[in-house]
Amino acid sequence: MTTAAELLAGIPELAGAEPVTRVTIPARLEYTHTPGSAQTRFLTALPDKRLLAERCPQCTRVYVPPRGACPTCGVATTEQLELPHTGTVTTFCIVNIAAKGLNIEVPYCYAYVLLDGAHVGLHARVGDVPYADVRIGQRVEAVWNEERLGPSLASISHFRPTGEPDADPESYRRWM
Amino acid sequence: MSPAARSVDRHGRGRDVAVVAFAQSNHTRRTDQLSEVELVMPVLHDVLKQTGLTANRIGFTCSGSSDYLAGRAFSFTMALDGVGAWPPISESHVEMDGAWALYEAWVKLRTGEADTALVYSYGKSSPGSVRDVLTRQLDPYTLAPLWPDSIALAALQAQALIDAGLTDEPRLAETAVRSRRAATGNPHAQLRGSADPAELLQRPYEVEPLRRHDCPPISDGAAAVILAAGDTARALHANPAWIRGIDHRIEAHQPGVRDLTESPSTRLAAAAAGAFDAPLDAAELHAPFTAQEVVLRRALYLSDDVPVNPSGGPLAANPVMAAGLIRIGEAAALIHRGEAHRVLAHATSGPCLQQNLVAVLEGTNGNRNGNSPRSTDGTRGGAR
């Protein structure tokens, strides 16, 4: 690879100049993000331990968290419904590297939990179980973070196994 | 027959492409209650309903928006939820004003890859400080570290025009008044109506020589257009707005090397689009600052008798990333309503009119009914 010094060598006017090899230009922009009507309804129900979803009037899929639109049909998800706190693990991984700024001990289990009645997985941690025992199809329930209930998904500490038999794969196969 | 087989008409020419529908939101200073998709989706439904088409019958979809406005990566993918992309659609996105998304779609239709296109764009400026956000499009090594905001750069341009004797503050105020009074007839505009020029000129400078009235409002908003080719266009609208020419050109990136009183890129684009081949009934110019209308009128050789921005223009509503597409939509709407036959639409991007797109739209020959565009109340400002 050509070095900066070699590049400068071809420019007589810059003979002897120290090449600039790096500049640091700090830039910071601040935003106040607003989540919109559908997500606001979802977030503001979390302190009451309620999981609000929305159903597409055309394809009847149930989205949680709701975003106000069905990405399949391109129509407003007008019907609101409340989902139970139980669901099925549809995929998971064990995270061994701590993300910067995230106050979680590694390793931890990160999973998609398909809440009963929903058609998209909710991102969540799975805990209170040896990670070797976590599996697709496992039935789980939400453990609420009693000290940190607020308009945030951090209101759910994690999901833990219910001890029920695993779900029938046909019940979640289409929604993995 | 596949669309590709019909890419050239029976006379051997590229197919004619027309705007057959246009919709926009009611632009406002803030839309805190709406996510991007909640802002865009009603506009998409409106424009589709006008043609009776559904998203899965559209041949190509292209959008324009900016992650820097949203403050999030890949923000356009969330807005795409409002289209309904199943079964999978042919889709593209430009990190530019929707006018450039329309250009990409126009190429798709001209080359026969699609018969219809949905073009949309949106901008929510309210989450951040748009004056600061726009500094991030400047040269990252020598200019962006100075954070010269969009109004400061526009003020340099305005001062250059005043120094060259091409305008003065009272004439700029007339442009502001004319635009915002024209917008009283536009239910989508954000600023409708204006105080008299004498009163405006009493107010303090924002960045000298620009006062608040010389600057566009900060807007959240969205717009959408449907394009169609040839007979499809004729089937979808009784009076399609045919795109007779469209071209876009760019100036040097560094404003310091440009003569800010001129816009050679606009003139080149206009010549390539055929703007000078026949008289114009109206022009929709994307001049967010009053002084920029002076530059554009000169570049486009617009005489005072051509109504400019009968919609109110970007001085009345300026949803960044959508305001250029809205110019094309408003130009088409004049033709759809039979109020004009041949209209120029212009879109810009970057500081001080850095990039410019010009489109010339026409109604079907002989289809003009002689009505004039919405009143511009006679107080025409800008270049003389």
What does this structure look like?
Chain A: Residues 82-144 form the ChsH2 C-terminal OB-fold domain. Chain A: Residues 45-77 form the ChsH2 rubredoxin-like zinc ribbon domain. The complex is a heterodimer of chains A (176) and B (384). Chain A is mainly beta and 176 residues long. Chain A has one domain. Chain A is 11% helix and 29% strand. Chain A has three helices and ten strands; from the N terminus they run ααββββββββββα. The mean pLDDT of chain A is 93. With 384 residues, chain B is of the alpha/beta class. Chain B contains twelve helices and eleven strands. Chain B has a nine-stranded mixed beta sheet with strand order 3-2-4-7-1-8-11-10-9, sandwiched between helices. In chain B, strands 5-6 form a two-stranded antiparallel ribbon. Chain B starts with 16 loop residues before the first strand and ends in a 22-residue tail after the last strand. Classes of the chains: A mainly beta (176), B alpha/beta (384). The A-B interface holds A 23, 25, 27, 29-40, 67-76 and B 32-38, 41, 44-45, 55, 68, 70-72, 78, 80-86, 127-129, 132-133, 136, 140-141, 144-145.
List keywords for this structure.
heterodimer, A: mainly beta, three-stranded antiparallel sheet, elongated, B: 384 residues, alpha/beta, Peroxisomal Thiolase, Chain A, domain 1, nine-stranded mixed sheet, two-stranded antiparallel ribbon, 12 helices, 11 strands
Topology:
The complex is a heterodimer of chains A (176) and B (384).
Chain A: H1 4-9, H2 36-45, E1 51-55, E2 62-63, E3 69-70, E4 75-76, E5 79-83, E6 86-95, E7 108-115, E8 122-126, E9 139-144, E10 156-161, H3 169-172
Antiparallel strand pairs in A: 1-2, 1-5, 3-4, 6-7, 6-9, 7-8, 9-10
Chain B: E1 17-24, H1 36-51, E2 60-64, H2 67-70, H3 75-79, E3 91-94, H4 98-110, E4 116-124, H5 130-133, H6 150-163, H7 169-182, H8 197-200, E5 205-207, E6 210-211, E7 220-229, H9 230-236, E8 241-250, H10 264-272, E9 282-284, H11 290-299, H12 323-336, E10 342-349, E11 355-362
Parallel strand pairs in B: 2-3, 2-4, 9-10
Antiparallel strand pairs in B: 1-7, 1-8, 4-7, 5-6, 8-11, 10-11
